[in-house]
Write a structure and sequence with these properties.
This protein is 36% helix and 16% strand. By secondary structure, the protein is an alpha/beta fold. It has 3 domains: 103 residues; 52 residues, 2-Layer Sandwich (Alpha-Beta Plaits); 204 residues, Rossmann fold (3-Layer(aba) Sandwich). Strands 5, 6, 7, 8, 9, 10, 11, 12 and 13 form a 9-stranded mixed beta sheet that branches. Strands 2-3-1-4 form a 4-stranded antiparallel beta sheet. Helix 1 crosses helix 4. The longest helix is centred in the first third of the chain and has 20 residues. It is globular and about 70 Å long.
Amino acid sequence: MTPSARLQAAIEMLDWIIAAARDNGASADNIAKKFFKERRYAGSGDRRAIRELVYAAIRRWGDRPESGRQAMLGLVADQPELRELFSGSNYAPAAIVADEPVASGAQIPDWLGDRFASLIDENERKALFDRAPLHIRVNGQRSTDMEVKSAWPEAVALALPHGYELPTGTQLEDRTLFSEGAVEIQDLGSQAISLAGAAAKPALVLDLCAGAGGKTLALSAMLSPDSKIIAADTDRGRLSRIEPRKRRASARNIETILLAPGNEMESLQHLKASCDLVLIDAPCSGTGTWRRNPELRWRMTPKRLEHTTELQQRLMVLGSELVKPGGRLVYAVCSLLDAEGGDQADAFLANHPGWKEISIDLPIGRPYRKGTLLSPYHDGTDGFYFTCLEKL
């Protein structure tokens, strides 16, 4: 493909991504897979160049552009070499005309700018758009750190036990240690939250928003095989992904429960006041994962954020009813917004005097508003806020 044809393809892919962001459709990564599946003529070099153009545009614009063309025209100011590719020739974008609408604005939407945690300064904001590293967690029940270092000599040990960073692009799926459940791909921030949950060695654990089970599996590897971990979620598709993962890791202490949205307690009644630990990795804006999913900015609106924080509040109350006296609740969000982090912890403790904050000693993160803040610039992790609370 010519450079102009690659640019036109990037514009077309961006149109798909913009529409999906507007209509709550598929993620940018899934759209890219479908896009290239329908264009098998695009070689590996073409696909790489098109992706780079697409993600340069996604990272550049905090507010959702009206079209892929507007997004790319806006990039011309940063990458003037793109101008000549708008030639109007075969397979090229149409020539630029005077007064044509162009995307503009900052990387972070104006309405979100003052909602970040106070520790998130300009350096932190820039780091939100860096390329995310590849972190893995070694399953100590299935392998050793020495075996992992032997398999990947380039692995760099991280601040937490069994955490390593590999070069971006390292293929894991075809390696024996991965197929045998000895390692899992997991951001160090997620590993830290799991470690905080495992600190008191709980015997009965409920992962209330388990998703595909990343933290469920981490807890299973950190706790005694005699412990019981229940992974629950309202999304059948995501929850079903735990089964092959737990078989691969030989995690026999994990059970799953599919919940009815808005009526979760119906399936959890038997756990009321029984759990040593309830982990709530709550649905959120995902501001802490912009390195991986920058198009999330195009999906979030003030109204959607309001609905999300209301759901978080409800989940915290629900989870608290399932914790036994002396047990713990760990609330976490992959967000750096106060509304989803510190504000939620403050509000819960103000309305539930039978709870107290527990300090967890970790080598990463910063104390922040009755919890811990993890961020790309300070910790090299995705952005997280989490708090550990104990029931009196």
